[in-house]
Amino acid sequence: MNNKINGKNKSNGGNKGKKSFYFLGIMILIYIILFIINGERLSNSLLYVWGITKEILPILVLVYAFMLIFMFIDENKLKSSIEKAPRLLKYILMSLLGTISHGPIYAWYPFLKELNKKNISLGGIGTFLYARGIKLTLLPMLITYFDFKFVLILTVVTLFFSIVEGFLLDSV
Amino acid sequence: MMNKMIKKKFIKPLKSIINSLPIMFGIILLLGIIEEYVSYSRIAKLFTNNIIADTFIGSAVGSVFAGNTMNSYIIGRELINANVSLFAVTAFLVSWVTVGLVQLPIEAKFFGMSFAIKRNLYSGLLSIIVSLITVVLWRTL
Predict the structure, then answer these.
(1) Which of B77, B96, B134 should we substitute to test contact with A (largest number of A Cβ atoms within 10 Å)?
(2) Are residues A26 and A83 in the same domain?
(3) What does pTM read for this prediction?
(4) Alpha helices by DSSP H, A73-138
(5) Which residue from A113, A115, A67 is spatially nearest to B9, judged by alpha carbons?
(6) How many distinct structural domains can be found in chain A?
(7) ipTM field
């Protein structure tokens, strides 16, 4: 029975893996078509892609480090501590983690998946992702473009609603 | 035996990251196309001067667009200069960073399609509420 389940999971994983490559293949195909139509314009896209790729690599190293730390924490102890912790506290912690995390959102998905496996609910993941709306490093720029009072209120309200999002995702 | 277990702990997260690379790179390629081929200056033309409708439009437009957050600030400022309401611009700024329709495939791959759709839907709706509360508080405090 167990083998059957494992087999099924493996086959699903394989399909998902294939789908990832299909998506990448489609994007490469679109780039080839755009290159034929207007190669010069596509070079701007490629420069942008190169810029993000350079940005994402150190983030992936950071994500790996985070995941590694969690690999060495006693999973059962962590799971029971998470289970015992009040729901609100879990959301607040995920909200703070989301606020201090930086870089592209998708670089954090493998780490969040690990957290989910260690009993952090999908609502907690939603809280983390919503709190990423607060960009600490870009706050000075936002203040310059809008105003300090506006940015302060926006930040506090966003933080509060990241927790609301967690409750919504876990309850509705 | 112990060495094997430690080795496994190092390899497992690495494998997880490597498995996510094809779709991650696909998303980056998609962002490259959006960045070059979608004209941000045309965004202002989407707004109607009706505050309620514009707040929804702001949230919807911010949800569809993705990319560097700094771009959303620059566009937001331009929209304010083009007399688009602050409610709409705030909803646009919030949904830009909290809703990720472009990243939906990769989010669904990790957490399931149901979660990805629900989370993006709630985030879009919450961006409207965040916008209303923020602007009302900013004006009254």
Answers:
(1) B134
(2) no
(3) 0.78
(4) 75-84, 87-100, 109-117, 122-131
(5) A67
(6) 2
(7) 0.83
